[in-house]
């Protein structure tokens, strides 16, 4: 199996349930033969998922900009750490050569990564599954808003397949088996 890219938060102040779900994600990845590709941080959900994968001797690739290294956000235990100049380079490398993207609850950085990938997928520039883990109903309002975009004809009905939602990381392996391939040619540059 290849790598799963995980978008998630660096805040350690969040409710413990979010960190536990990130920790469990690390376990799910290793048990199913996937490597972790993530933003290289050491704390919050980032640190939790990386720590669990490392604890289980799984594969971890971090991608982090130099400015984050300078403020000591880098996970020191990740040997395969790629340093880049910009956030844009980071995102580009994170989504290269991966099996899927898993999005855990997070803040503006996590959402910015998610929306860039959804936009790329809509334009046929990215075709892998994007799975949102809806811990504590975190993504309910976002899912409603995305569906409102479809209802109001800012996106086509087919664009509702850009993302998939699971309630727990335990559902990810089954979801990956059942998510249909994204037809990049049929939807490429598709207007509403």
Describe the structure.
There is one protein chain. The protein is an alpha/beta fold and 192 residues long. It has a single domain (3-187), classed as Rossmann fold. Helix content is 41%, strand content 16%. It contains 8 helices and 7 strands; from the N terminus they run E-H-E-H-E-H-E-H-E-H-E-H-E-H-H. A 7-stranded parallel β-sheet has the order 4-3-2-1-5-6-7, with helices on both faces. Helix 5 (108-122) links the parallel strand 5 (100-103) and strand 6. Helix 1 (16-31) packs parallel to helix 2 (44-55). The longest helix is centred in the N-terminal third of the chain and has 16 residues, at 16-31. It is globular. The mean pLDDT is 94.
Helices and strands in order:
Blueprint: E1 3-7, H1 16-31, E2 35-38, H2 44-55, E3 60-65, H3 66-70, E4 80-84, H4 87-94, E5 100-103, H5 108-122, E6 130-133, H6 140-151, E7 164-166, H7 172-178, H8 184-187
Helix pairs in contact: 1-2
Order of helices and strands: EHEHEHEHEHEHEHH
Number of strands: 7
CATH topology: Rossmann fold
User: How does the helix and strand content classify structurally?
Assistant: alpha/beta
Cα shape: globular
Number of helices: 8
**CATH architecture tag:** 3-Layer(aba) Sandwich
Low-confidence stretches: none
Q: What would the average pLDDT be, to the nearest integer?
A: 94
Largest sheet entry? 7 strands, parallel
Give the CATH class. Answer: Alpha Beta
Radius of gyration: 16 Å
